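Q: Got a minute? One more chain.
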Amino acid sequence: MTTQQQPRAYVPSKTLDTPFPLIDNDPHIRRVIAYARPSDYVAGAAIGVAGPGMMLLWERIAPSYVGKGGFAPIMRLSGALGIMAGFIYFAERSTLRFYGFNENKREQEMDMREMVDKVKKGEPLYGKSSLSPHMQGVASRNSRYSGVWLHVLPWFNFVNHDQHGVDTAKYYQQAERELEAERKTS
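A: Always. Here it is, folded:
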């Protein structure tokens, strides 16, 4: 009996009907942070300080009388939880624009610029990966659209792979147009 593996059929990821165009259904955490808007930072910071702020407010309204030794650990805990909640909220806002759930014109332009520059340099669009194609697919399937439930289960994409739910031909076509325009001007 042979142990030859049968090639598996590629099944494209499901595309959702969203009010804005899909940029990436599994954005890498670096792209989520890099594409974030200043309003995302403000919203994340507001969520981050809300926990410790509420603890201080409650201590003023209804003092616990535990003294400095008892209140400081609670403030550290609420500060740590606030930082985590603020980051998750910040990342979720940015990620939802990649999915097309929120207005994403700015992100579309940034994505096109980033990918066209990579095409011109001859680099892989979504980075190099040391994982096998099978493991890249597993990673992609595990984190695809995970930003929808980020507030329930924080799950980010840390793997470079080429399964992002978009037709990458648009990047190559735009790069060809730009290179042709550069040749005509020089």
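A: The longest helix spans residues 68-99.
Q: Perfect, thanks.
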